[in-house]
Amino acid sequence: MNMKKKEINCPEEEIEFKFLPHKKRSLMLSESLYRLHLENRSLRVKECGTFIEMRKYDKKYIAEGEREWKLSTANFCRDRLCSMCNWRRSLKIFGQVSKIMDNIPDSYRFIFLTLTVKNCKGSELKYTVRHLLSSFKKMANYKPFKQVFKGYFRTLECTHNHIENSYHPHLHVILAVNKSYFKSKNYISHSKFVEMWQKALKISYEPQVNIQKIKDERHMVAEVAKYAVKSDDYIIEDNLEYTDEIVMNFIIGMSNVRLIAYGGIFNEVRKKLDLDDAENGDLVHVNNDTLRSDVSYMVYNFHWSSGIRNYTLKKEMVYNVQIECDEDN
Ligand SMILES: [Zn+2]
């Protein structure tokens, strides 16, 4: 389902190659929730993205490098496991974190950190996820950590190993450091990191820690802005019973925890930029798009048809003649 490489040239293509695959995955989740007797939740997910409206503007109203069309309305369910909503959330997180990093002063550098624990069973996921998050908080308060790291952005991700039937919750973290960090006496080596993480987790084995200096910021932000849970991890197409078991474990394990968190300089810049909550906020205007209503545009209304399991399209031109005349005068 990797559609990232496909170039999208019009609203119809965005529906076909982006929205439609997610809509189909969300319907599979809805069916699983129904089988699990979570009827209300199932219905909410089933309704996700049944109505999508886009506006297409004339080129002259569009800034260089921007798309001519923008999403203006949609009914997203916001379910934590929904494929459609996770895609929207990841676009939003990508946009916000990129913007924050663009606004962090040049004197900072970034490090990409992955913190893991051993895979766990489904029944242990809830405890393991909470333990992971509280251990990160604890480590962020250790003196050597606080001395050098000026801020962080972290996300929680959990994957599932279908063969072993085990769960792998882990954290992706971007850390901000001063330019001088790499040559400073307070530099934290990989082994020191492992030691700190092990101490925070209070475990007897050495946990896996991955550290990378960030050279390609966009690439790293994309890594961090990945989905908390990917639909491929819980939808086993030829095994409904297994699907339902994993869905239930993810529901129990991943509820009531913050999927993302900001600290230090990341949080300061986020507040200054007045960005809304990427986790619970608006999933329609994920790029901070401004929708102009003072000029003419074409409205694209896509409605989900459960009969043909696809979207149907109605187009309509909206003229805002009066104001355009004013501009000409
Ligand atoms: Zn949804």
Provide structural commentary.
There is one protein chain. The chain has 329 residues and is of the alpha+beta class. It folds into 2 domains: 1-77 and 292-329, no CATH class; 83-276, no CATH class. The chain is built from 11 helices and 9 strands. The strands form 2 sheets. It has a 5-stranded antiparallel sheet with strand order 6-3-5-4-7, sandwiched between helices. Strands 2-1-8-9 form a 4-stranded antiparallel sheet, covered by helices on one side. Helix 1 runs antiparallel to helix 2 (39-46) and helix 3 packs antiparallel against helix 7. The longest helix has 25 residues, at 11-35. The structure holds zinc ion (ZN). Zinc ion binds next to helix 3.
What's the quick description here?
This protein has helices spanning 11-35, 39-46, 83-103, 125-140, 143-148, 190-201, 217-224, 231-234, 240-254, 265-272, 321-328, and strands at 51-57, 69-74, 108-116, 149-161, 166-178, 209-213, 260-264, 297-305, 310-318. By secondary structure, the protein is of the alpha+beta class. The chain has 2 domains: 1-77 and 292-329, no CATH class; 83-276, no CATH class.
Question: Could you list some keywords that capture this structure?
Answer:
329 residues, alpha+beta, five-stranded antiparallel sheet, four-stranded antiparallel sheet, 9 strands, binds zinc ion
